[in-house]
């Protein structure tokens, strides 16, 4: 059997030949001492692209989020986030263990996208002066929201609300370049509204490892201290940063292909699973399928699809599929065929 079509995440893509060559020949130093030239180049490039003063290269997006939480949120205080946000749900134990931080969840009306009015309500001072919000964390694109895109103007409105309340805004931009592709804006257009933000090189941009956290010089100085404190000073990290530089240069320009493939997948599945997939709700590279009307649950579908050579994940009881650089248009056709065969399987 040929290799499975892996739609579990956009993190599963393998580095390109160009990345592997760049990694093999990367100039490196010791990143603990700040003298890895390839890491420094990547950080400079990320700061420049986002329009921020400084950047720090970290192993994961989770660590970026956790470092930012640790800087902004005092132990026992709160961060406001959307009810299904990665930082507040997937990473909730990390925030508790590393920072003593808790979350005030705000459920979005639709697709994980918060409004200024909702954030303003969440930031209203506690009349009993017990709950204190130190940070608002916004996710764009919103993963559980289906890869939904928060428009720049909406983020601007939320930032105005945060500024009025004296609370910094953090942008979890794990997939911000997917948002930029759809919104037709530069990453700096979003970043200007955040005190700090992160983005993943290891997702749609196609690098094997790494994420970047950006902010002002003082914030990044503290982030470097925490990187060491959390055990993530990773020495000759330039080997990874070399692939990251290629991801940053070449990744954003091809994300529209992933979005088109996700559209094709969603359109095909909408026929197979009436009411289970809404192609109009697929803006970027994430497709959720609600299989509750099929007589099979998501776990059964995952097993049936795996037997047909297609790997998917389950998030919140729904089947989740992501397109990425390792999946071409022909693979999408094959994945839809696999879904049709699985639907017929007893
Ligand atoms: C993937 C993801 C993260 C975490 O990134 P890792 O590199 O997997 O740790 C954070 N936030 C969002 C929205 C994500 O999708």
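^ Assign residues to that structure.
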């Amino acid at each position: 059997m040929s290799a499975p079509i892996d739609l579990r995440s956009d993190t599963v893509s393998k580095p390109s030949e160009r990345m592997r060559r760049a990694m093999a020949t990367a100039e490196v130093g010791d990143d603990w001492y700040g003298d890895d030239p390839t890491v420094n180049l990547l950080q400079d490039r990320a700061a420049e692209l986002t329009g921020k003063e400084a950047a720090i290269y970290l192993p994961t997006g989770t660590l970026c989020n956790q470092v930012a939480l640790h800087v902004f949120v005092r132990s026992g205080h709160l961060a406001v986030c959307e009810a299904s946000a990665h930082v507040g749900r997937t990473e909730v134990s990390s925030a508790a263990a590393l920072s003593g931080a808790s979350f005030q969840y705000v459920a979005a009306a639709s697709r994980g996208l918060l409004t200024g009015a909702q954030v303003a309500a969440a930031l209203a001072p506690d009349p009993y002066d017990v709950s204190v919000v130190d940070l608002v964390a916004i996710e764009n694109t919103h993963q559980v929201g289906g890869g939904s895109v928060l428009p720049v103007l909406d983020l601007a409105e939320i930032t105005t609300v945060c500024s009025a309340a004296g609370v910094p805004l953090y942008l979890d931009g794990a997939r911000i370049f997917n948002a930029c592709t759809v919104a037709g804006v530069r990453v700096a257009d979003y970043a200007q509204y955040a005190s700090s933000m992160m983005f993943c090189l290891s997702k749609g941009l196609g690098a094997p490892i790494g994420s970047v956290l950006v902010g002002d010089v003082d914030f990044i100085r503290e982030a470097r201290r925490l990187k060491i404190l959390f055990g993530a000073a990773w020495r000759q990290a330039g080997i990874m940063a070399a692939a990251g530089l290629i991801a940053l240069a070449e990744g954003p320009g091809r994300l529209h292909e992933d979005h088109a493939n996700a559209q094709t997948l969603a359109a095909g599945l909408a026929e197979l699973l009436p009411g289970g997939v809404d192609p109009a709700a697929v803006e970027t590279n994430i497709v959720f399928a609600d299989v509750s009307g099929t007589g099979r649950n998501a776990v059964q579908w995952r097993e049936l699809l795996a037997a047909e050579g297609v790997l998917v994940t389950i998030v919140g009881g729904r089947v989740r599929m992501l397109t990425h650089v390792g999946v071409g248009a022909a693979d999408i056709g094959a994945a839809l065929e696999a879904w049709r065969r699985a639907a017929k399987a007893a």
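The chain is about 40% helix and 15% strand.
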